[in-house]
Amino acid sequence: MEYPHIPFLPLHFTEAETLERSQAFLQYMERRRSLRFFSDSPVPKEVIENIVMTASTAPSGAHKQPWTFCVVGDPAVKAKIKEAAEEEERESYQGRMSEEWLHDLAPLGTDWQKPFLEIAPWLIVVFKKAYELEGDERRKCYYVNESVGIACGFLLAAIHNAGLVSLTHTPSPMNFLQRILDRPENERPYLLIPVGYPAEGATVPDLKRKTLGQVAVWF
Fold first, then answer.
1. Distance between CA 69 and CA 189 in Å, rounded?
2. Residuewise pLDDT in 10s, the chain (219 residues)
3. For position 45, which CATH number holds?
4. Element at 28 (helix H, strand E)
């Protein structure tokens, strides 16, 4: 399949406007935090649809778009996911994780219990496609981890832009998600992201992000 080239429609800003927009977006994104305390207040499905489609604007290797966003709002399915996730997390905290890993997690106050998986009105389970299936034929996908990682970044930014909160949850192993959600053999679970409004009185660790000098090198 060939993609015909069409005119690109650029955005036009003055240098001052570009600087102002970059500063405003940085300040807005600085307020984004991973949250573990969710409200059960409903979020309209259309909002989640827009967020997912924003994530799907991400670039991908050979434009394969190797992602599937499974959006879970059914309380019964959320309960199954929570039960299975906590089982894996309990084993991880009680034996799989190294002492160093547990030491690094300790300041965050996390443990194997994940009530937010039932409380949050929506769970977005991101799957990566190891390959495409066209009937019985397998077609290669390129830079799958990179592509899906970028899409998840877009997803988190879109969630924050909508005034919602999220958490990137990665129970390990995550194969139970493929079973519970009955995904095809070419899909692998990548991230489990609860989405909703923050609970009243929600708190976050008082973390400090690295400075520009710590994250960038100029040449």
1. 10
2. 688 999 999 999 999 999 999 999 999 999 999 999 999 999 999 999 999 999 999 999 999 999 999 999 999 999 999 999 999 888 888 888 889 988 888 888 888 899 999 999 999 999 999 999 888 899 999 999 999 999 999 999 999 999 999 999 998 899 999 999 999 999 999 999 999 999 999 999 998 999 999 999 999
3. 3.40.109.10
4. helix 15-30
DSSP state for residue 102 in the 8-state scheme = H
Give the chain's domain count. Answer: 1
Residue whose token pair is 């400090």: 208
Beta bridge partners of 139: 132
Element containing residue 45 per DSSP (H, E) = helix 45-55
pTM of the model: 0.93
Is 213 a member of any domain?
A: no
The owner of tokens 């604007």 is 57
Query: Looking up tokens 């390129």, which residue turns up?
Result: 142
Q: Is 216 exposed, middle or buried (0-12, 13-18, 19+ CB in 10 A)?
A: exposed
> What's the domain range around 130?
34-198
* Secondary structure E strands in the chain: 67-72, 122-129, 131-134, 137-140, 165-166, 187-196
Q: Which residues contact 58 (CB under 8 A, 6 or more apart)?
A: 147, 150, 151, 153, 154
Mention every residue, 6+ apart, whose C-beta is less than 8 A from residue 52: 69, 71, 124, 155
